[in-house]
Fold:
Amino acid sequence: MTSEQLAWKIRRHGIEMTHISQGSHIGAILSVADIVAVLYNNVANVNPQDPKMPERDRIILSKGHAGASIYAALAEKGFFDVEELKTHYADGSRLSGHVSHKGVPGVEFSTGSLGHGLSVGVGMALAAKKDDKQHKVYVICGDGECDEGAVWEAALVAHHYKLNNLIAIIDHNKMQSLDFCENTIALSPFADKWKAFGWNVIDINGHDHNTLKEAFAEAKVSVAKPTVIIANTIKGKGISFMENDILWHYRYPHEGEEYDTAVAELEAQRL
Structure:
């Protein structure tokens, strides 16, 4: 399976999972799909036969509301049965709406209360440094999440300890909750802020798989500082009527025209 094929599967599962459960956050699931696909398919050292192997890379989805993207990737990579994705958001399911590590192989940390994931990643990366371990720690953050002060406290600590084993990826889809990021709390100049905090900054198209692979390769050899990949994306990517429409932060594809059109558009993109 190529990373492009995995990204398609993540989007297709995402539509199905939110439709069945009547759950939310499909816009974020679609925007982050390419990042997640490349990370699990081509970059991270993870093993579905041994999810807790000590030398594994750690992956944290700090923007936990896009948890369906992680569940879909894990299922397609063999961590658990793909059929279980149909239980997403259901009462009693281990696949909660916000990503949870409770009983889910391959998930390192439960998230959803925004701003916490990077701090946890810093702790994991610092521990790895002190123990002379070689694995990497990857943290996927949202851009709106970067309004949280905890993100910048973690960024300061990561620079202080020269955590070049820590790689943050920002799903920079320019939207949060109910509006554009710039209308909520302006992030720009976004890259300059990270540079001022002492990070190696890579600013890319977050939907181009070759560019993502190159960025991850560069991040792995970052010298004496942590790396942030600012992945510029489109909220709702892949479904024309969802793209750049804030409505789809919380909404799910309803039965009828919305669901049918979304499925038809994705099927036309099948690889």
